[in-house]
Amino acid sequence: xxxxxxxxxxxxxxxxxxxxxxxxxxxxxxxxxxxxxxxxxxxxxxxxxxxxxxxxxxxxxxxxxxxxxxxxxxxxxxxxxxxxxxxxxxxxxxxxxxxxxxxxxxxxx
Length: 109
Fold this sequence. Notes:
Layout: E1 2-6, E2 10-11, E3 14-19, E4 24-28, E5 34-35, E6 39-47, E7 50-51, E8 56-64, E9 72-81, E10 87-95, E11 100-108
Antiparallel strand pairs: 1-6, 2-5, 3-4, 6-8, 7-8, 8-11, 9-10
């Protein structure tokens, strides 16, 4: 069993929005101004090894991120028009892998 906890990755955030004559642009803060949400993950695995004359066979079962925590790896910002004719700044998060089960076998000669 493996448990990982880390503070969120450093990130920058939007400070200003301006219109350059053709489209709206986002000006970001300096690097590492803010942090993404904290990262946590629990993994489990089990294996068994059979020794043979010619080598070994080792079947295993593994599950990564068993709590299915939505770990944010990247946050992107974009501008959308609102109902009043203005614009709003919105963000969307890209998450890392969800719960992933594995079944496999290692064979050594």
